[in-house]
């Protein structure tokens, strides 16, 4: 690096002094820090329009309310959302006709009958149905009985059969019936009833009686059993919680 001679240094110093004396010249001046302010600048720029120095403000005064309003943006997701609640009880689609039962905790033991199962039961139990034989017209079907027995590949299995009203035991059986159809086109006179004894209802309480149509055929099935921990592929055997 080439060193500058003494005359060259003096020349640069005189030029710098002459520029600082010109109107509008700017130069850097160290900032005097204040202990009472939390924000400061390392250097500040002052103007010298006519040889007089005017210091720029070192900090901006702002109140806590202004700071919170300017630097803390409102979050629209923090606003409370109003949720509408209703106290109207929902109408059950299935009613208990006879012999209602409760579990050990005093809760009612109920089942549901799906709309498909109810429609199919009304068609089967309709005396005017063309598919009903002469024997059934003399002693028509009245309900679908569901019985749970031990066996099957998972410990329990349920059996279904169509029975007449004479098979109902008023002391042992609980009779459920689906609500009347809301579709005006359904003019069948059949009934959508399901009958269970006490032990069977205890294992199937909370489940739904459904009617499915598959490639292998159509059948009534038990679905959404809250007590079942596993089910067989055939759909008739299940295991329950201890």
Automatic annotation (TrEMBL):
GO terms for cellular component: mitochondrion. Residues 58-69 have a biased composition (Low complexity). Residues 109-235 form the Core domain. Residues 49-73 are annotated as: Disordered. Belongs to the HesB/IscA family. This is Iron-sulfur cluster assembly accessory protein Isa2, putative. GO terms for biological process: iron-sulfur cluster assembly. It comes from Talaromyces islandicus. GO terms for molecular function: 2 iron, 2 sulfur cluster binding; 4 iron, 4 sulfur cluster binding; iron ion binding. It holds the Pfam family Fe-S_biosyn. InterPro entries: ATAP (IPR016092), ATAP_core_dom (IPR000361), HesB-like_dom_sf (IPR035903).
